[in-house]
Design goal:
Elements lengths: L3 H10 L7 E9 L8 E10 L3 E8 L4 E7 L8 H4 L2 H6 E11 L2 E10 L10 E7 L5 E8 L2 E13 L14 H8 L7 E10 L1 H13 L2 H5 L1 H4 L8 E10 L3 E6 L9 E5 L2 E5 L4 E5 L8 H4 L9 E10 L2 E9 L3 E4 L6 E4 L1 E7 L5 E8 L2 E12 L17 E2 L3 H4 L4 H25 L4
Parallel strand pairs: 15-23
Antiparallel strand pairs: 1-2, 1-9, 2-3, 3-4, 5-6, 6-7, 7-8, 8-9, 10-11, 10-22, 11-12, 12-13, 13-14, 14-15, 16-17, 17-20, 18-19, 20-21, 21-22
Helix pairs in contact: 1-4
């Protein structure tokens, strides 16, 4: 029976078919805010070289013909024909051999990866074709209820390619490295540095918004009086997945906690004058793209660009060209728009030693790990407050050191200030 380290490259390579196929398929996606689900049925064909054709009918009876030649045009039933999204969004396991429509396959099940950038549910089951790597069927669930599904209802495969199939962007070993399918649970200790050129990112974003009709009409509202400052932060990071981590700020991050530590059951937030205790929770969202770069496997044009050494550790250098992407700073939690990501992936641990995110050719967000080891101190994930330390378990207001009355007063004051500023800008706006 195969391991996930064998099935991961099979799922990734399906985008570069070696044989032609033709069949009928159907999909269904629940839409809670709409009257009824989104449904699609149709007949499709696919050939090596990224050639796709389909005749599709939606839930309203609207018919559409689509075609794709390599990267130009939409792929019909993309989640069946290009299932690398499973690697990017779910932790998968092989659950047994399967047969569907007379074709041999493998059954998979998975739970959502924390680094996932999609809006998929929290679980998935699927049957992958043992030869082609396409999905024969899949079902995504969210909180125990089906949210999306698709399947072939008929499928025929031609013997031999009809065109030059092309080569996948990444080798099998590079795919395994990105999704960590051949590696054990992550153990990591390192210094993490984040640098963000926020002024440049804001300037470029404002220029793009100002070029739109809506942006021109609302310039008085969103244009800032002064540039926000750049960001340069550092912290000591320790991780022992699945549930343990610790982040110690190297410089004072006030008013944010100087230390976050989680042992899987409890989360400690250490401030200069108090320690707050919450139920255990995963690391901050911005940390995950650094320690789990599998998100790069879905929706981005990847190019392997040799190897590079970062902090004395060898890594695989990758370039990803997304059309539009929001990246979150791992320490500042700042969200910035980017259109290119250059990453160096550690060849031993499968983590992003360095990431440089650019917008219109300008680097706007960078992260780097140094002093990396696979050794961690398990005792570091638990905080024992010193005698006399104020320990808080009363929720966010108590953690901030404010009573409910004080918090309500600050909210009212802030709301009033925002209203006054908007009124000032409205009164000062240019008149036609």
């Amino acid at each position: 029976m195969p391991e996930m380290s064998d099935l991961a490259p099979l799922l990734y390579r399906s985008r570069w078919l070696q044989s032609s196929l033709a069949g009928e398929a159907r999909s269904r996606r629940e839409r809670p805010r709409f009257d009824g689900p989104e449904e699609l049925t149709g007949r499709l064909s696919a050939a090596p070289g990224g050639q796709y054709r389909a005749d599709l009918v939606d839930e309203s009876g609207h018919r559409e013909q689509v075609s794709c030649d390599r990267w130009a045009g939409p792929i019909p039933f993309p989640r069946l024909l290009s299932p690398a999204w499973l690697l990017a969004h779910f932790d998968l396991e092989f659950t047994g051999a399967a047969e569907y429509l007379g074709r041999p396959g493998y059954s998979l099940a998975g739970s959502r990866r924390r680094a996932s950038r999609g809006r998929d549910g929290d679980g998935v089951t699927a049957v992958v074709d043992a030869e082609l790597g396409v999905l024969l069927r899949y079902e995504v669930t969210d909180r125990g209820r089906r949210s999306e599904s698709a399947e072939f209802t008929s499928l025929a495969v031609a013997a031999g390619p009809e065109a030059e199939p092309g080569s996948p962007d990444l080798s099998d070993d590079q795919v395994r490295l990105l999704c960590r399918s051949a590696l054990g649970p992550l153990r990591l200790s390192a210094e993490l540095r984040e640098r963000a050129d926020v002024p440049t990112a804001v300037r470029l974003g404002q220029a793009a918004l100002a070029a739109t009709d809506l942006g021109r009409r609302t310039r008085w509202l969103w244009q800032l009086d002064e540039d926000p400052p750049p960001i340069d932060r550092a912290a000591r990071l320790q991780v022992a997945l699945p549930g343990c981590y610790r982040i110690d700020a190297i410089a004072d991050p006030a008013p944010e906690p100087a230390c976050l530590a989680c042992d899987g059951e409890h989360l400690w937030l250490v401030y200069p004058d108090r320690v707050a205790i919450r139920p255990g929770a995963p690391p901050p969202d911005g940390i995950w793209p650094v320690i789990d770069p599998a998100w790069l496997l879905d929706g981005y044009r990847l190019a392997a660009d040799g190897t590079a050494t970062v902090g004395g550790r060898p890594g695989l250098r990758l370039v990803a060209d997304p059309a539009d992407l929001l990246m979150r700073g791992p320490l500042s939690d700042t969200m910035l728009g980017v259109d290119r990501v250059e990453a160096t992936i550690d060849l031993e641990l499968g983590i992003a030693l360095r990431q440089v995110c650019s917008l219109e050719g300008h680097p706007v967000l960078g992260t780097e790990l140094s002093d990396v080891t696979a050794q961690v101190d398990r005792a570091a994930f638990r905080i024992d407050p010193a005698p006399g330390t104020r320990v808080i378990t009363g929720g966010l207001l108590a953690e901030a050191g404010r009573s409910p009355a004080r918090a309500a007063w600050m909210v009212a004051r802030g709301t009033t200030g925002i209203a006054l500023e908007l009124g000032r800008r409205w009164a000062a706006r240019p008149r036609p």
